[in-house]
Design a protein that fits this description.
By secondary structure, this protein is an all-alpha fold. It is built from 18 helices and no strands. It has a single domain, classed as Up-down Bundle (Growth Hormone, Chain: A), CATH 1.20.1250.20. Helix 11 packs across helix 17 and helix 11 packs antiparallel against helix 18.
């Protein structure tokens, strides 16, 4: 059992509030309602990923030098501006600006909070509890997503306004900003030592250690395995939304409601149970590792199964078997949350704790490169061939890259 002290609940509260993003279950539907094509949507998603990629290294260095708390607060400030833009406009070019800011927010945040958790476990001498502890805090995040789904469906059902969900999202993000500002200074890392040196000296030291990771084949394989799977999941997961919309409009129930209301009900219910199951999967990730005996075997196996889910979800939707496609997407979400704590634990074992924020940012950087590519390809192919075949093709591409990312015990 892991000790559930004050910081455990603060970490959990962070994830819970962060995942109250009411726009998330309806983001693609929001873009489609703004008269965007799937290619436009792919460009927007790719813009966010590329922006994160460009900002990833400097923001990772910023976190190592000036403190992880400040990095997190900068990220949340960028998010708040992003949500305001989406609430106020439907202009594609302003959407691009918002996506750049969203990418900046992700760059400040990605890897940094995980590094704070890992730093806390190191201070408390609980490094052997990484999978269980991170899985438990991530479970709170997924529970937040489940509640988020119902709140988002409620707003869309009663207002019919996708823009309003961005305004409501600002509230939990302000609360999380306050929560992060009260984190203890000890989670910033070696900031006191950094302040005694020149910034340039520390930049050179961080870049040296950062570059050293690319000479560690085992670490590179771990980063590639994690980033390939996660980027495939990230690029494809939101395409569950148009599948749910077409399913909601095809079933002969709730005919007294508008199409948007029927879609809101179906999306809200499916995402609610999807995230509840994902929350349970995160909490039980350490049990799965024990079942497999070796963490590398668990990570490799879930990679193959999850990628197959993407392939067959796309194929099922192309064959108009929407229910099967929906179930496969639910399975993909569960599997992602089952394996994510495994990845965090395994990757952290390959990286020096002194540069943990930068190290986890490398993983995020690779993920963003793949996500940008997959997002753009899915968008273009969805306009040309339909959503189903686009998912099938991209899933097959990811599966073909698996030999480069196989993890071995030695």
């Amino acid at each position: 059992m892991i000790p559930k002290d004050r910081m455990f609940y603060k970490f959990s509260l962070y994830g819970f509030l962060k995942n109250l993003r009411l726009f998330e279950p309806f983001l693609i539907l929001f873009f489609l309602s703004s008269n965007l094509t799937f290619t436009d949507i792919g460009i927007l998603y790719a813009t966010a990923e590329i922006s994160t990629n460009l900002f990833e290294i400097p923001t990772g260095i910023y976190a190592d030098i000036f403190g992880r708390r400040k990095s997190m607060l900068m990220g949340f400030s960028a998010y708040l501006v992003t949500f305001t833009i989406f609430y106020l406009t439907s202009n594609f070019y302003l959407f691009l600006v918002a996506m750049v800011l969203y990418g900046l927010g992700d760059a400040f945040r990605s890897g940094t909070h995980k590094a704070m958790i890992l730093e806390y476990l190191k201070i408390k001498g609980m490094e052997d509890k990484k999978v269980e502890y991170y899985g438990a805090t991530r479970s709170a995040s997924q529970f937040g997503s489940a509640i988020n789904s119902l709140l988002a469906a409620f707003v869309v059902f009663y207002t019919g306004d996708y823009h309003l969900i961005f305004l409501v999202t600002i509230i939990p993000y302000i609360l999380d900003f306050i929560n992060l500002a009260t984190y203890p200074k000890e989670l910033d890392g070696n900031i006191e030592k950094v302040l005694k040196k020149s910034v340039w000296t520390q930049v050179k030291l961080t870049l040296r250690d950062f570059a050293s990771m690319f000479r560690n084949i085992k670490a590179l394989k771990a980063l590639l395995n994690s980033s390939l799977f996660d980027s495939g999941f990230k690029a494809s997961k939101d395409y569950l939304q148009p599948i749910l919309q077409s399913f909601a409009l095809s079933i002969p129930i709730m005919l007294a409601f508008t199409g948007r209301q029927r879609t809101a009900v179906v999306v809200g219910i499916v995402y609610f149970f999807l995230y509840l199951l994902s929350s349970y999967a995160s909490r039980k990730s350490h049990v799965a590792v024990k079942k497999f005996k070796k963490i590398t075997l668990a990570i490799n196996t879930t990679f193959l199964i999850g990628t197959s889910f993407i392939i067959f979800a796309g194929l099922s939707y192309w064959l108009t078997l929407s229910i099967i496609s929906i179930l496969l997407f639910i399975g993909l979400h569960i599997l992602f949350n089952l394996r994510r704590p495994m990845n965090v634990s395994y990757v952290s074992d390959q990286i020096s704790s002194r540069i943990m924020a930068s190290g986890l940012s490398v993983e995020s950087q690779l993920k963003m490169i793949f996500s940008a590519t997959f997002s753009f390809v899915i968008g273009v192919l969805a306009d040309l061939l339909g959503v189903g075949l686009s998912l099938f093709i991209v899933g097959f591409i990811i599966l073909s890259l698996f030999p480069l990312a196989i993890l071995r015990e030695n």
